[in-house]
Amino acid sequence: MNRRHKTKRWARPVTVTTALAITAALLPTGAAYAGGTAGVAAPAAAGVTASATDAALAAAPGAQPNVVYIVLDDMGFSDLGSYGSEIKTPNIDKLAAGGLRYTNFHATPLCSPTRASLLTGRNPQAVGMGSVANVDLGPEYPHTRGRVSPTAATAAEVLKGGGYTTLGVGKWHQAPLHQATPAGPFENWPLGKGFQRYYGFLDGYTDQYAPQLIEDNHVVDPPKKEDYHLTEDLAEHASRYVSDHVSVQPEKPFFLYWGLGAQHAPHQVPQRNADLYKGVYEAGWDRIREERFERQKKIGLIPEDTPFPARDAGIAAWSSLSQQQKDLYVRYQQTYAGMLTQADEQIGHFLDDLRKFGKLDNTLIYLISDNGASKAGGENGSIGYSQSGFGGGSGGTLEDKLESIEELGAAGTYTEYPVGWAQVSATPFRQYKGTAYNGGVQVPLIVHWPDGIKDRGALRTQFHHVSDLTPTVYEVLGITPPQQVNGIPQQPITGTSLAYTFSGQNEPTRKKTQFFLMNGNRAIWSEGWKAVALRKPGVQLEQEAWELFDTRSDYNESRNLAQQYPEKLKELKKIWDEEARNNGAYPIVNGYSSPAVTAAAPIRSSFIYYPGLKHIGLSAAPKLKGISYEISIPIQRKEVKEEGVLVAAGGSDSGYTLYLKKNELIYEFHQFGKVYRIVSDTPVPLGKAEVKFVYTRAGEKGGSGALYVNGRKAGEAELPFTDVRSTDGLDIGRDTLLPVSLDYGDPDEFPFTGLLEKVEFKLQPLADSKK
Ligand SMILES: [Ca+2]
Ligand SMILES: [Ca+2]
């Protein structure tokens, strides 16, 4: 595969502040904190009181703590230094050393559901986010709408009503992606959900060098800064938003939500940062996993008697790998680790700013990961979409990846580490993102609040869940969430505040039950017992085997007691069923494979786009998969040198572009290293002209593309398909972010310099094809 990029983005030197490093070994063990001084903050001013009306959301009196949620993505339980890792995360470790680390904290198995749960204090199905925001099954499936129901106000809405300034940066993934257009609709965008300012991205992931960005209710143009990286950009915006706020309204508290793109794929970081880990990962994933495990015991994060889980069946012993494989796999993990160190550094800059503003001690900060480590990179990892099962590509061969090893981590790639490293991230657990085993849902939680938590650097072992974090904030702020918001009656909040753990080190958990469901993967935790069932395609739900664990004596789910305690399992399955009913989780669906995935997206067979339209994400662009269609574009030119892109989608890894250059009309389709190109056989006349691309589907597989100039066929080629998979979307009159063609030449985005009247897509009526 030969994937070139318009610019190489490797140059930026990154300094890692090792002086701040607190190695895991230096952090005291949990045992050392027995009897430590503990103090819970008295609830701040009694602020807001319960009422059935919106009017009850009166401003809270002053000196309220500020609140910051920092959400890392797809980062496993063991990846932070303070959770046993060799990865350098000195700033986050400092946060841990000044606050609390939780050893028994759980997210949901996936991105959007965790964020919905975090922001609302409820279970994801109950609020409409049973799957990711990409999946909107329509009104018949209220548990899977790709959005948060207005019956479950977010922390931003409630805190804004309580007198807070509400700020957000980074990953949103809480609006159905068919609404991610320059024209909304906006009710599920951050500003529709209680944020007053927001800068970030709507999708579940984006290219770190060429991200699809929004600010407030606007799609914004791509960053033009040399050596740009999204993680730095988000940190700068987080700092600026807070700086603006404290400069102008220092007496008023703020709430900041910060969702990092890190550590979701694509794993992209300047080479210099990855190079920090030269010589580290040659030890191999078996050895690194053992070392993390031993460190976790030493820190006291995991019980002494925790058994070391066997290597997964699908992962090769490091010693059995070829040198070429080792070289490739080491590069992936260097990139992953370098990306996390960069994220840590940026979090450190933000925390330094908070300190400068005099706000660090009076700010309650949570830092979590939204789910466990991802195994989507498969056996060999991925460098391009073509190599990623997640991106829908073929998976690619080891040879493909070795061939593109120098591209690893660069702009336009979809770099993701192989499952061997995901198991290291999951130490000491089994399984990954997407399942309700510990490896999918047990994640770090660090709470830092010097004014409210006197116990420093201590561990907390109580079972808790991401839906408990916002209820905790309401409790410590003395805010009773209103029964109506915007005139809409609110569902009860089901999370359990963990504020009692701020002082109560040894107090048993107040959580009684926690229910998990993700694409048919199920689990229930109840008073220390946990039952888990993994969805098996083709097997009836009722026939699936459940495993049973006593988590009080079995920290990492290593002893299945289902045979030994059938009655206990039966009881837990009954509780699961009750919880599923209480949370509106039936019928159980697999969001990805459901035929109704796009049911709620507007179905149209005609799209007319006018010049000046901002970038549109692929989820909201015309769907070209498996259908015949045409794109017709009336233009007007005075001179031959008027040229440029008429319409383009995606980038050079996967994308199409229709452009004029040197008086020729050119169509290119790029897919995973292959380039299909059609060039008009006659010049495009000056003056008014209509150019057209027509794609004709031929049966189940295959098809052909043709160019027309003023109604006359001007070129034709076989084209097996033309649908695009990319972090980049659709542009009219230019090609932003990742350029599709390598032939544009110098001008940035290669904007069309003639007159472009409109770009019209006419799709084969969808009734004729599968939706
Ligand atoms: Ca995630
Ligand atoms: Ca592009």
TrEMBL record:
<dbReference type="InterPro" id="IPR000917">
    <property type="entry name" value="Sulfatase_N"/>
</dbReference>
<keyword id="KW-0732">Signal</keyword>
<protein>
    <submittedName>
        <fullName>Sulfatase-like hydrolase/transferase</fullName>
    </submittedName>
</protein>
<keyword id="KW-0479">Metal-binding</keyword>
<comment type="similarity">
    <text>Belongs to the sulfatase family.</text>
</comment>
<keyword id="KW-0106">Calcium</keyword>
<dbReference type="GO" id="GO:0004065">
    <property type="term" value="F:arylsulfatase activity"/>
</dbReference>
<feature type="signal peptide">
    <location>
        <begin position="1"/>
        <end position="34"/>
    </location>
</feature>
<dbReference type="InterPro" id="IPR050738">
    <property type="entry name" value="Sulfatase"/>
</dbReference>
<dbReference type="InterPro" id="IPR017850">
    <property type="entry name" value="Alkaline_phosphatase_core_sf"/>
</dbReference>
<dbReference type="InterPro" id="IPR024607">
    <property type="entry name" value="Sulfatase_CS"/>
</dbReference>
<dbReference type="GO" id="GO:0016740">
    <property type="term" value="F:transferase activity"/>
</dbReference>
<keyword id="KW-0378">Hydrolase</keyword>
<dbReference type="Pfam" id="PF00884">
    <property type="entry name" value="Sulfatase"/>
</dbReference>
<dbReference type="GO" id="GO:0046872">
    <property type="term" value="F:metal ion binding"/>
</dbReference>
<feature type="domain" description="Sulfatase N-terminal">
    <location>
        <begin position="65"/>
        <end position="479"/>
    </location>
</feature>
<keyword id="KW-0808">Transferase</keyword>
